[in-house]
Inverse folding.
């Protein structure tokens, strides 16, 4: 099926969570990547949202998705833009790298 093929295509993807906070690091493979997104939701008490604003293509192998992230956690508020760069190789997403508009504020929110 189409969905099964798309899921299989991301099994080896690496998601790079930038910054200096407890969630920073590289998440490798579909289980780790989905686990990371689960942690965002869990640690924000279910308030984390990422609203897609724009998509743009850069060259032959990169798509950049700009999102607006919002969340609440322990009296702190996250409210900023984030770029997520998807590298495509062999017709599959192979690497996703975060770029936050205010990395210090993002780190403080999750720390």
């Amino acid at each position: 099926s189409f969905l099964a093929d798309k899921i299989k295509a991301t099994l080896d993807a690496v998601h790079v969570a930038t910054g200096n906070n407890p969630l920073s690091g590289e998440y490798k493979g579909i289980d780790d990547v989905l686990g990371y997104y689960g942690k965002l939701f869990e640690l924000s008490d279910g308030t984390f949202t990422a609203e897609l604003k724009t998509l743009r293509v850069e060259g032959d192998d990169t798509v950049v998705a700009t999102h607006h992230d919002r969340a609440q956690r322990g009296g702190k508020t996250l409210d900023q833009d984030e770029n997520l760069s998807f590298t495509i190789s062999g017709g599959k997403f192979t690497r996703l790298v975060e770029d936050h508009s205010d990395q210090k504020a993002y780190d403080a929110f999750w720390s």
Notes: The longest helix spans residues 29-43.
